[in-house]
Specification:
This protein is α+β, with helices and mostly antiparallel strands. It has 16 helices and 13 strands. Keywords: Hydrolase.
């Protein structure tokens, strides 16, 4: 073997499981891995702008502690591995700005998801950028500027977990947590060539909130591979005693590489009802059909069969979303926000009453109605977004109605599964002719993450999206 073959890759170029294995095997150290991650963050921050909070001193202390534990024979799933979390998630000692401007006190306790990451040995290197209160499929705000897409500096990485997606795609961390209230994990995963899992509601605790945004928002992992996303999901999953939703435990990692059997898969390009004009980009439609062909080649029965969402699902989404924005806004009295956020919070206050109550009452009906589609199909394959990633500045300086038209036109597909609370997984589906990533989502009924993960794993073994990395410009 030649000398170059013996040189280990930089720690941040490894996947989550690979880096955990390298640390356990002693081929690298946590201090080296965390330093590498922090240095990459520092170099990229003026251009890529993925992070709101960087925890250099605290992370290096934890890395040194992890190395001592590794040397003593302690073994944990992520001991010494650097990861990032989104800045809607409390990390003790750090402010939680949630994309807003202003001064915020440091959190006194970790969120339950962060507590579980730490219990697994992970080192939290920072908190990633998100738009104000997670409202947009863009990661932009007056408080921090624009987070950029590693595949194209002029484009958004998506949102609202765009900082987490950018950090993973650019190789700063092997995986990161985001949150998804209308597609906020799946959309940035689609636009950055990542696997993004929106789990079953309650799979990863939202504590200190018993539920987030009236049950719409869940936490979920972003990673380059299905195995890494499943690993982070398993590590972060679990309930706090105060949670309103506590689904039975699953083993996501065991589903990776497992034969799901011959499935009945529906390909649905139907766009859920929107009040604004929407259309599916032909390149994205072609990519979804190409993925359907791959699934047929894997032995599945794949049928074009549109899932008709109906009008009631939108009637359930809007009050829960806007009332959620209003309630979070009220808990942040010092927040400096965009007028569009203020307008949404004002509308949310009006809906936070009988309209919200009625919206929540619709959910069992929607479960029965849409669940009936799954009498004939095991899962649905659909586009994750209707368009490739827009330019980052497209969201700037426009009014509320123009903003709604922009974000709905680009991202009309993901929000219904937040109303239902069911799992969905974005998988990379190739690239446009101009080199922008495309995503497709696998959608199941309650607690079907293992099924979706096993199918995503099958697709990855055929398509090998993990081999495609952007050329660094940051």
């Amino acid at each position: 073997m030649s000398a170059p073959d013996r040189i280990a890759p930089p720690p941040a170029d490894l996947g989550l499981a690979e880096l955990a294995s390298a640390l356990t095997g002693g081929t690298t150290s946590s201090v080296a891995a965390v330093t590498d991650a922090l240095d990459r963050i520092e170099v990229s921050q003026p251009t890529l702008n993925a992070f709101r909070v960087v925890r250099r001193a605290a992370a290096l202390r934890k890395a040194a502690e992890a190395d001592a534990r590794l040397a003593a024979g302690v073994r944990l799933p992520l001991l010494g591995v650097p990861v990032a979390v989104k800045d809607d998630t409390d990390v003790a000692g750090e402010p939680t700005a949630f994309g807003c401007g202003g001064e915020f006190p440091p959190a006194t306790e970790d969120a339950e998801s962060v507590r579980r990451l730490r219990a697994a040995g992970a080192v939290i290197v920072g908190k990633t950028n998100t738009c104000e209160l997670g409202q947009l499929p863009f990661t932009s705000g007056a408080a921090f500027g624009h987070t950029r897409n590693p595949w194209d500096r002029t484009r958004t990485p998506g949102g609202s977990s765009g900082g987490s997606a950018a950090a993973v795609t650019a190789g700063m961390v092997p995986a990161a947590l985001g949150s998804d209230g209308a597609g906020s994990v799946r959309i940035p995963a689609a636009w950055t060539n990542l696997v993004g899992i929106k789990p079953q509601r309650g799979r990863i605790s939202t504590w200190p909130l018993p539920e987030a945004f009236h049950g719409l928002t869940v936490n979920g992992p972003l990673a380059r591979t299905v195995a890494d996303a499943a690993l982070l999901l398993d590590v972060a999953a679990g309930a706090h005693e105060g949670d309103l939703h506590t689904p039975a435990l699953i083993d996501a990692r065991a589903a990776v590489g497992r034969d799901p059997g011959k499935l009945r898969i529906a390909v649905s390009l139907e766009i859920p009802f929107t009040a604004t004009k929407t259309a599916l980009d032909p390149e994205i439609a072609a990519a979804v059909h190409a993925m359907a062909g791959t699934l047929r080649g894997l032995g599945h029965t794949v049928t074009v069969a549109d899932l008709h969402y109906g009008l009631l699902i939108g009637a359930s989404f809007l009050p829960r979303s806007l009332a959620g924005i209003s309630r979070v806004h009220r808990t942040m009295p010092g927040a400096v926000v965009d007028p569009r956020t203020t307008a949404n919070a004002r509308i949310g206050r009006l809906l936070d009453g009988p309209a919200l109550f009625a919206a929540r009452r619709l959910e069992p009906l929607l479960h029965r109605r849409i669940g009936g589609f799954f009498d004939d199909y095991d899962l649905v394959l659909a586009p994750t977004t209707a368009t490739p990633a827009p330019h980052a500045e497209d969201i700037d300086g426009i009014g509320t109605s123009s903003t709604n038209a922009l974000i709905t036109g680009a991202c009309p597909y993901t929000w219904p599964w937040n109303v239902l609370g069911w799992p969905s997984v974005n998988v990379p589906a190739g690239f446009t002719e101009t080199g922008l990533p495309i995503g497709a989502q696998l959608m199941g009924t309650a607690n079907t993450e293992p099924l979706l993960i096993s199918v995503a794993s099958q697709l990855e073994s055929e398509l090998r999206w993990d081999r495609h990395r952007p050329t660094p410009w940051w």
